[in-house]
Amino acid sequence: MLKNIDPLLNADVLYALRAMGHGDTLVICDTNFPADSVARETVLGDLLRIDGVTAARAVEAVLSVVPLDTFVDDSARRMEIVGSPDEIPAVQQEVQAAIDKAEGKSWPMTSIERMEFYEHAKKAYCVIATGERRFYGCFIFRKGVIAP
């Protein structure tokens, strides 16, 4: 057990988050996302898991140790709902609140079309699957820097 580290961040997840560099991306996804097959194509090559929690709770844990990239406009992205790209379901609203809390201010979350999301996810550093059962609980985050 470590002090001041969210207990959801298991050793494998912590290793990946620490190994990532500025500009690397990570996927946090729901249970319906093809997480294992997509994860095999990522830099890490293995699926990571934070089971039994919502996407928002997993995002809260991850963003407790990972800064978002301030050099780009799309450091937080959500999968668009097919046929309704501007709709923001509850799961995405909850994740938006977790992002804003972690960053200490309102933080823009951009959207990305579903099939394009899959292609971006394959190029990510890693994929973290959650226990989120609601649809469209899939997000991509770009790691930023910690100032000296």
UniProtKB/TrEMBL annotation:
InterPro entries the UniProt entry points to: RbsD-like_sf, RbsD/FucU_mutarotase, RbsD_FucU
Coiled coil, from the record: none
Domain of life: Bacteria
Keyword list, A-Z: Isomerase
Gene Ontology biological process: fucose metabolic process
Keyword Acyltransferase: no
Database matches in Pfam families: RbsD_FucU (PF05025)
Keyword Zinc: no
GO molecular function: D-ribose pyranase activity; fucose binding; L-fucose mutarotase activity
Catalytic activity: beta-D-ribopyranose = beta-D-ribofuranose; alpha-L-fucose = beta-L-fucose
Protein name per Swiss-Prot or TrEMBL: Ribose ABC transporter
Lineage: Bacteria, Pseudomonadati, Pseudomonadota, Alphaproteobacteria, Hyphomicrobiales
